[in-house]
């Protein structure tokens, strides 16, 4: 392919603006040939630049095209400013209207002082070369090198920049996951192993008053895919939220969201086994959204698009079978409210005060509901028998007897006369299976 002098000058300008001023190349579906669009929302004067080599002596004939593309890019990057057009065709002329300025840039010629002031160093960028194709390829390689370096930097996070508290939490979750799977090898049942090591189980909460499970359940995972998905989400949300909140605030949001999520499950769901940190993740998601609103990032169209897709995906996940919508909902509400109270934004002062009062009422309301939702439905005698047997195998005989006594007592209080015989039959079955194995 033969490159014109105007093409090479365009590429020289493109390489300079991308490598020295961090402009990003914008890809347009209806992009014309020899027509480059760049964006940098941090440049307040010229957030959008067009590089072209076509003949243009005035802007009126292209007004519709220029204005529409300019507005689309401004909306995408969340910026305001003039459109700067750098035209490399010698037959073109400088032009200006209410939203755009065009300058003609030619190799080895004196450049306009306004451009030199806006982009120091640009005056020495454009020069004639002996081989246009070689120069074009050289510029292309420089752009590719910068893109690869940026991609490498995004993938490689220095150890000092890792979210330290998040990494500790990930370590705890992984350690508990290993313990759950080791214990399941002993008792032969993964769900019961998870419950024994702290997963939410309404029967244990109500019968044994083990309300600590509302918190511990967040760190219990039994399935490797569940663990990996949650840890990836925790790392991404933690990486952002640890920068926006203090460590105490971050930890409070996460832990309170876990408790709130499981409390919503306790009030709204049946006697289920609940595990995983997803309630806390939804709390961090709520905190993330609040921070975007606080610093104005939510005004960025691309941020809104990405956030909307993230929310829609999480709503879809929450509606899948065996996924606790109540845990996600409770975590999201409490995480968002706490973040709103924590972030000191002057324009939110009055609203924060009312939110704080509403949050107190929410806590009081949840606490009042807890004694009213002690009903266990359905009962799982075999699961309870495995829990009791597991405690016996670990020489926790006192805990085993306490569980059995309290389980039966709870069933009797709810007129479940068939529960005790079923539990004893399950215990006998497990004992016989143990003897046969030995």
UniProtKB/TrEMBL annotation:
GO biological process: proteolysis
Gene Ontology molecular function terms on file: serine-type endopeptidase activity
One Pfam family this sequence matches: Rhomboid
TM ranges: 162-183, 211-229, 250-267, 273-291, 326-345, 357-374
Location in or out of the cell: Membrane
Homology family: Belongs to the peptidase S54 family.
The protein's name: Membrane associated rhomboid family serine protease
Organism: Dielma fastidiosa
Lineage: Bacteria, Bacillati, Bacillota, Erysipelotrichia, Erysipelotrichales
């Amino acid at each position: 392919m033969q490159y014109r002098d105007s093409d090479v000058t365009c590429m020289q300008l493109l390489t300079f603006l991308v490598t020295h001023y961090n402009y990003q190349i914008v890809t347009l579906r209806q992009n014309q040939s020899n027509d480059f669009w760049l964006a940098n929302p941090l440049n307040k004067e010229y957030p959008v630049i067009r590089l072209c080599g076509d003949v243009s002596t005035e802007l009126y004939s292209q007004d519709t095209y220029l204005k529409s593309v300019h507005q689309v890019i401004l909306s995408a990057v969340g910026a305001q400013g003039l459109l700067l057009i750098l035209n490399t065709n010698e037959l073109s002329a400088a032009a200006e209207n209410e939203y755009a300025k065009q300058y003609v840039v030619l190799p080895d010629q004196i450049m306009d002082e306004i451009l030199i002031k806006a982009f120091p160093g640009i005056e020495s960028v454009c020069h004639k070369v002996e081989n246009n194709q070689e120069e074009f390829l050289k510029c292309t390689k420089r752009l590719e090198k910068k893109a690869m370096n940026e991609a490498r930097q995004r993938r490689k996070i220095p150890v000092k920049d890792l979210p330290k508290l998040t990494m500790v939490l990930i370590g705890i979750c992984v350690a508990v996951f290993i313990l759950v799977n080791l214990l399941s090898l002993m008792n032969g049942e993964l769900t019961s192993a998870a419950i024994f090591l702290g997963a939410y189980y309404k029967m244990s909460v109500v019968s044994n008053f083990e309300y600590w499970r509302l918190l511990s359940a967040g760190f219990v995972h039994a399935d490797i895919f569940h663990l990996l998905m949650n840890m990836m989400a925790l790392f991404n949300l933690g990486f952002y939220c640890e920068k926006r909140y203090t460590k105490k605030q971050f930890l409070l949001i996460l832990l309170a969201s876990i408790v709130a999520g499981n409390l919503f499950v306790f009030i709204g769901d049946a006697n289920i086994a609940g595990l995983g940190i997803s309630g806390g993740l939804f709390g961090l998601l709520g905190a993330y959204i609040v921070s975007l609103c606080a610093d104005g990032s939510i005004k960025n169209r691309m941020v809104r698009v990405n956030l909307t897709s993230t929310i829609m995906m999480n709503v879809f996940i929450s509606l899948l079978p065996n996924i606790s919508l109540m845990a996600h909902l409770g975590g999201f509400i409490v995480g968002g409210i706490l973040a709103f109270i924590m972030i000191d934004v002057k324009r939110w002062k009055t609203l924060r005060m009312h939110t704080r009062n509403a949050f107190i009422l929410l806590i009081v309301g949840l606490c009042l509901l807890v004694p009213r939702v002690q009903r266990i439905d359905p009962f799982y005698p075999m699961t309870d028998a495995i829990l009791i047997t597991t405690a016996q195998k670990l020489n926790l005989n006192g805990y085993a007897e306490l569980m059995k006594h309290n389980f039966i007592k709870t069933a009797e209080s709810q007129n479940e006369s068939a529960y005790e015989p079923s539990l004893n039959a399950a215990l006998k079955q497990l004992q016989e299976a143990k003897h046969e194995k030995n």
